[in-house]
Specification:
Layout lengths: L7 H19 L17 H8 L5 H26 L5 H31 L38 H9 L2 H29 L3 H26 L3
Length: 228
């Protein structure tokens, strides 16, 4: 049985160089190349977005939920890329997802680091807004259904095992079915970020997810419909 996480780094390195023709065929927009973001070298734009307004619970919980959600997308993509006899169109889509969502995870983690570094000695409260920094609790808690186990669209361990064991058309079909549901869950989370969050970076991230993952759902639906 293939390892569920083996080769993600190799897949990412290869995918960034191979996206061109594949994403054009799928009608997607190739993500910009993204180097890992170190905490000591945070993009000033991320720092500005993090510190312009102290994040609310909605801001914080969107990031806390979307990182593991994206990480499972990488896992699903790695599994189908490791399967034998998967079509080039589906491989190109999986490679695109790995590149795009890996870059997003790096940026989200940089946002978290920038926010933590900007918190004053007294901390901020769960209800902190704007330029006000009430004096308790550096990190909001109580993310509710943003928690990993409650996020819509997450594949179960049994579904991951089934994809791990599948090959060829079976692996391709199962990947597309699972990833469509997974993306639909991300759209729910992103909609909440756009409508309820107040931090500029969080709202921008939500808008990107809404646009990009809706395109990917359309592409995956078309791939499923074209399968024998």
């Amino acid at each position: 049985m293939r390892s569920r996480v083996a080769g993600i780094g190799v897949v990412l390195a290869a995918s960034i160089g191979l996206l061109g023709a594949g994403v054009v065929t799928l009608g997607l927009t190739s993500p910009p190349a993204s180097a890992p973001v170190a905490a000591a070298n945070v993009d000033p734009a991320v720092t500005d977005a993090a510190t312009a307004a102290y994040p609310t619970v909605e801001d914080h919980c969107y990031i806390e939920g979307m990182i593991p959600h994206h990480e499972q997308a990488l896992e699903l993509s790695a599994l189908v890329l490791d399967a034998n006899d998967v079509s080039e169109r589906t491989r190109a889509l999986a490679e695109f997802i790995v590149a795009d969502q890996s870059a997003e995870i790096q940026t989200m983690r940089a946002w978290q680091d920038a926010w933590r570094q900007a918190i004053p000695a007294g901390g901020v409260s769960e209800g902190g807004h704007g330029d006000h920094a009430p004096a308790s609790g550096a990190v909001p808690s109580g993310c509710g259904d943003h928690a990993h186990s409650g996020m819509r669209g997450m594949a179960t361990p049994e579904q991951l095992a089934a994809l791990d064991a599948a090959e060829s058309v079976g692996a391709e079909r199962l990947f597309l079915e699972l990833m469509i549901v997974h993306h639909e869950g991300a759209l729910d989370m992103a909609t909440r970020a756009v409508t309820e969050a107040s931090n500029a970076f969080v709202r921008t991230s939500g808008k990107h997810v809404l646009v990009e993952q809706a395109r990917e759902i359309a592409a995956m639906t078309g791939l499923l419909e074209g399968m024998p």
